[in-house]
Amino acid sequence: MGLLRKVGKQEKTCAQEKVFHERKTRMVTTSMLHTSISSSSSSGFMGVECWHPDENRVLNIRLSDLSLKGQFPLGIQKCTSLTGLDLSRNKLFGSIPANISKLLPYVTTLDLSFNNFSGGIPLDLANCSFLNDLKLDNNRLTGNIPLEFGLLDRIKIFSVTNNLLSGPIPTFIHSNIPVDSFANNLDLCGKPLKLCPGVQGKSHVGVIAAAAAGGVTFTSIICGIFLYYLSRGVAKRKADDPEGNRWAKSIKGTKGIKVSMFEKSVSKMRLSDLMKATDDFSNNNIIGAGRTGPMYKAVFSEGCFLMVKRLQDSQRLEKEFVSEMNTLGNVKHRNLVPLLGFCVAKKERFLVYKFVENGTLYDKLHPLEPEIRNMDWPLRLKIAIGTARGLAWLHHNCNPRIIHRNISSKCILLDGDFEPKLSDFGLARLMNPIDTHLSTFVNGEFGDLGYVAPEYLRTLVATPKGDVYSFGVVLLELITGEKPTHVATAPESFKGSLVEWIRQLSDGPLLHTAVDKPLPGNGYDHELNQFLKVACNCVVENAKERPTMFEVHQLLRAIGERYHFTTDDDIMLPSDTGYTAFPDELIVATEVTKEVE
Q1: For 546, phi and psi rounded to 5 degrees?
Q2: Which residues form the signal peptide (predicted)?
Q3: Domain boundary among 322, 354, 386
Q4: Domain co-membership, 332 together with 390
Q5: What is the model's pLDDT at position 457?
């Protein structure tokens, strides 16, 4: 990131500014910034735009998709006239500077999407009064969205999708921000999303109309409304909710409720024990988040660890929920995360799982620092086979049979021996009423983006072949090292998904180039080719042409036969080869269980 600190260090003319120095690495950085400078060039660097060829002021910096590493470049403040900054689709991490308005006082467009920024969204961004476009999506941002953002009267584009945000969203008076700009977060609320707890659906339209009739300026109206919210709401929220767990305070009166445990070997506990072990469900204890809700690490005084999931938006009454939990408590397999117990407290639903110490497959494949990724081919193959075994068992041998519906690398956990454990199985039905048969995919809530089978757009019905597709995307992640929604090694002009990239390569002789660079040439090339074929078969467009999970498991097991990963397989040949009958299946209603084949 030193290259960015040098931008504006001494604002020479743009033609002379040699900001970007080539690094002798394979990582795409400055050498891709078109370093050739013609004698008549005014700027000489693509991605850097000046006010005028002979001026000394940088207007825009666009460094998207260059695999840049490091934290936010504080040296950018030297570019005192900067209005546009695009650092999207890189590998930047750390927090967004708390004084960002001082670094970028005139910024109109700020794009930090598709990075690994963490921490809270700085309140100071609300002081960037010229902002038109603000893109913070696809990071790891936590906490609340500052309500003061509603005061940004020029904002037209705003996106925070795919983060870990919670709490009320701002009301943008001057803009119509679409609902999908907030999709795939922990627990955001407020119009146009779900109503926030304890908030009455009152309208201020009458107030605005009356004030306007009285000659009060529109700006005064806005300021009046927001000053009310900021004085009554924001200050209280910050004082009362520093850890992002305000909701937990509402259940403190239920601390004495017992946790229903399925395992006799686990000590009896109460909700108070879970709250103490998770620091009252502090955001600092979140170790994962997905469609079904956040997962917390619970640390008990005797030194043991558990995982606690707070189920998001459960649609089940307590009696139905308890019945579902008693069913899932009996679902046991070595490649499933053991469900140890559950707890109901008012409207909250908590699930207690065995702690799985090596985290998610997603975090192992896509660490903040790519250099620390240390996954050789046999390990990746072991994870693929174990996950396929668990999913095939759910589809074919579990009673009742279960469609997962939320398969992603984030719900595959790795134990101390890197044996994969599927989490979130059987929870999808708890998220939506079974008699609707509809997902909420159109609202960005059906599965993780990049893993959703194309037929869902047409049928909106969960099927086993949909799980096969999602698992195929995981296989592609394993063999390419790429994220499902962003292919870092693809040309800059390519903006599609990992599956689309693989299909594009499949049309020519370059499919083998998609394999993660450290893997070929180590004696595994034949296995890599066979594995890639299985993955491609899983993600074909037509669901009828995809294999069953039983077949996928058998194919992967054959590829890894020489490693002797397992000798005691428990996946039996299904009696119905097309597995069209799911009479007791937990997710899809009986009248729509005819397989989309």
Answers
A1: -80, 145
A2: none
A3: 354
A4: no
A5: 66
Tokens 């990746």 sit on residue? 380
Residue type, 54: D
Burial 114-138 (b: 16+ CB within 10 A, else e): bbbbbebbbbbbbbbeebbbbbbbb
Residue entry with tokens 């399925």: 262
pTM strictly above 0.85? no
**Domain shared by 323 and 417, yes or no:** no
- The CATH number linked to 23 is 3.80.10.10
279's CB contacts (< 8 A; 6+ apart) are: 243, 285
pLDDT band at residue 322 under the 50/70/90 scheme? confident
Q: What is the pLDDT of residues 227-283, one digit of tens each?
A: 444 444 444 444 445 555 666 666 665 555 766 676 665 567 888 888 888 888 888
Is it the case that residue 49 has pLDDT exceeding 70?
A: no
Boundary of a domain, candidates 324, 354, 384: 354
- Number of Cβ atoms within 10 Å of the Cβ of 213: 8
- Work out the number of other CB atoms within 10 angstroms of the CB of residue 424: 26
Q: Is the peptide bond before 192 cis (omega within 30 degrees of 0)?
A: yes
Domain range for residue 554? 361-592
Task: Give the amino acid at 122.
Answer: P
Highest mean pLDDT among 109-123, 224-238, 344-358: 109-123
